[in-house]
Amino acid sequence: MREPQFRRFLMRQIHHPQASRGPANHATKNDSETKSENTSDYTPENPSQDPSQAALRRLILSQHAKAAQNAPTKKAKRAVRNATALEQTLRWNGSGFQRASPPDPEHLSLRRVDLSGSRPARPLMDSLPASYWIRNQAMPWLQLGDTLLIAFADAETAEICRPKLEAVFGPFVPVLAPQSQITHHLWLYFRFRLAQQANFSLPNLLSARSLLKHPESLLHYLPLSTLACLAIIYPRVLFTAFCLLAASLLGLFTLLKLAGVSAWLRGPSRPRASALSQESRASLPVISVLVPLYQEAEISQALLRRILRLTYPKQRCEVLLVLEEGDQTTQSALAEIQLPDWVRIIEVPEWGDLRTKPRAMNYALNFCRGEIIGVWDAEDSPQSDQLEQVAASFARAKPEVACLQGVLDYYNPRVNWISRCFTLEYASWFRIILPGIARLRLVVPLGGTTMFVRRRVLEDLGGWDAHNVTEDADLGVRLCRMGYRTEMLSCVTYEEASCSVATWTRQRSRWLKGFMSTYLVHMRDPRQLWRQLGARRFLGFQAFFLGTTGQFLMAPFLWSFWLVFLGFEHPSEPLLGAGGVTLAAVSLVFFELLGVAIAIAAAFATGRPGLAIWSPCLSFYFAMGAAASYKALYELFVRPSFWDKTSHGLHAPEVPMGHPADREPRPGQPFIL
User: Fold this and answer.
1) Is the CB of residue 570 less than 8 Å from the CB of residue 564?
2) Distance of CA 130 to the CA centre of its chain
């Protein structure tokens, strides 16, 4: 009897056992003989039951035994094992099959089945979100009449999920199956749906996907044509207007930096989390860390070595290496490495033309089982006790603290002057200015790595914007708009600094393009943004995004004020007067000196005082940002979601990053010159 015919026959027997008594008895006789030949150790638990009911139970075994008789040895064993588990799990109650008595939670002992080669009850999967099945490693396996069998990877999860599943499906029979098989079936069924959801996890008003949706529209070029006409008709007036705008944006960003420095000087230093006791380790939260990888042949093995140094209990953490489908470079590199069981590979299916880091993380979020979600980059070298500090910080934080941002630093500052200046820039921002902004409870634009967020909050916000190339800064704004706070961690993650002009320009242009997109998205409704952020945070939002992008876009107009110190007349002096031009020039000098002073303080704060002598070079270093800003502005119109990838693995760490050298240097302790 073929399987579909057998299923129909079985359904008739379940619902109308008297309707086919004759054929059933005939089939039972033959099947009983077959069964006795293949499963001679089988004995009914209740020999006194109705013969038709016993025959029906034997029929289940006999059909599996027949399939096993003509199958290869491996499949035969699986068929008999599944048949035995199914028959011993189901019980006949006179009107239909029902599950046996629920197991004692203290002595859980569920039947094991093999899912390979079987078809799960896929339509039933849609009764609950895909993330629920994936997170709990469970799936509806088989339905016989009113009886549903649900496969779990472990018995403890089955008992935890029982109340919710019974509320949806009613009584069910739990069985155990290998986790790899459950994951495979769930991946096959949900992968394209999850890939589509990863692209569109946010509504249009909060996503950059609808920003400049039709770049070929003439309306987008109307401002440019208007400026071109004004430049021809009123060149001096237009030049003066841009100079005033540049000076205003520079002053706005200077105020933000001064506020951050002032709060940093007044605020207490961030204490390093103490070591966890055995009692606290037993109640640690599960932390899932996403590591997006793309074309990372050189970095994969080094990344794994750094991850293996983590001291967080491995049963309470997991690292998900997120790969794009078709990325043969990274897949080949990882194929040569034997990964521990707490490090998994998640392959993101293709869906459309979008290939961005936030899209990959949105997809991988469904496979995370942790209550805290973290992000590391491919080249990161986190401190060995970083996850302990994350758990301790969240434990003592207030409920409104939904995100923690770690300190970012570079492990290769001695390559050239660009890497030294890059290290000073990061130290100034992550050691001084950003901690001050967080203490003032302003909008904290997150870094792209070493950020940890409560999973519940992240899912409520819709995850990351898959179309924004600075998804970190955008997430920081959305957290603040919803009333959540971001605090700083004292732990440090070391990265690889871009050391060439071309690489630095590509990376900086992506950041600036993302800042422009984030600003335009959230300024679609300025009044609502004002109501959600409040006046102080709204001004801080304007100061950061307008000041960061404006100081690079308007750099040539700012540079024109250096003519005053060279003894030349500024082109705007006839309109602004000598006093106005002098004030703007002095403001420019003050801004440069403030940046140098912060960089010197940051060099000592990182334990690298030798870097302080390179702080005057920051003026020439930031001059490269002008070219990057124009590239960003062009791509904002042409390719707003294009991810200009930064190459990694070109420079090895200059100091060992393992314990105890991976600890943050004490202030005043020489580290790297």
Assistant:
1) yes
2) 17
Residues 6+ apart with CB under 8 A from 610: 603, 670, 672, 673
Spans of all domains in the chain: 3-192, 235-262+379-638
Query: Does an H or E element contain 486, and which?
Result: strand 485-495
Distance CA 515, CA 549 (A): 7
CA neighbor of 626 nearest in space, from 475, 501, 442? 501
**What CA–CA distance (Å, rounded) separates 467 from 643?**
9
* One-character DSSP codes across 229-265: HHHHH-HHHHHHHHHHHHHHHHHHHHHHHHHHHHHHH
Token pair recorded at residue 226: 């208007």
∠ Cα 595 539 206 (to 5°): 110
Joined together, the tokens standing for residue 358 give: 């936030």
Phi, psi at residue 7, to the nearest 5°? -65, -45
Contact 445, 542 (CB under 8 A): no
129-169 tens-digit pLDDT: 998 999 899 999 888 777 889 999 989 999 999 999 999 99
Q: Which residues contact 343 (CB under 8 A, 6 or more apart)?
A: 304, 307, 318, 319, 320, 321
Q: Torsions phi, psi of 162, nearest 5?
A: -55, -50
Both tokens assigned to 656: 């060992």
Q: What does pTM read for this prediction?
A: 0.80
Longest pairwise C-alpha distance within the chain: 113
pLDDT at 445 exceeding the cut of 60: yes
- Please give the Cα distance from 36 to 54 (Å, whole number): 14
Q: Rounded to whole angstroms, how far apart are CA atoms 100 and 583?
A: 86
**Residue partners of 632: CB distance under 8 A and separation at least 6:** 508, 509, 510, 511, 512, 513, 516, 549
- Residue among 258, 259, 235, 255 nearest 247 (CA): 255
Beta bridge partners of 319: 289, 343
Side chain identity, residue 58: R
How much of the chain, in percent, has pLDDT values that exceed 90? 52
Are 149 and 172 in contact by the 8 Å Cβ rule? The answer is yes
- Give the model confidence (pLDDT) of 202-216 as tens digits: 999 999 998 866 555
pLDDT tens digits for 599-614? 999 999 999 999 999 9
DSSP 3-state of 99: strand
Q: What's the token pair of residue 359?
A: 């899209």
End-to-end CA distance of the chain: 79
Q: Map residue 401 onto helix, strand or coil.
A: strand
Query: What are 634's two structure tokens?
Result: 């062009």
Place of tokens 């000073």: 424
DSSP string for residues in 108-144 = --PPB---TT----HHHHTTS-HHHHHHHTEEEEEEE
Q: How many CA atoms lie within 13 A of 640 on its CB side?
A: 23
Q: H or E segment at 320?
A: strand 317-324
Is 176 in a helix, a strand, or coil?
A: strand
DSSP labels, 503-539: HHHHHHHHHHHHHHHHHHHHTSSHHHHHHHHHHHHHH
d(CA 492, CA 449): 11
> How do strand 97-99 and strand 90-92 relate by DSSP bridges?
antiparallel
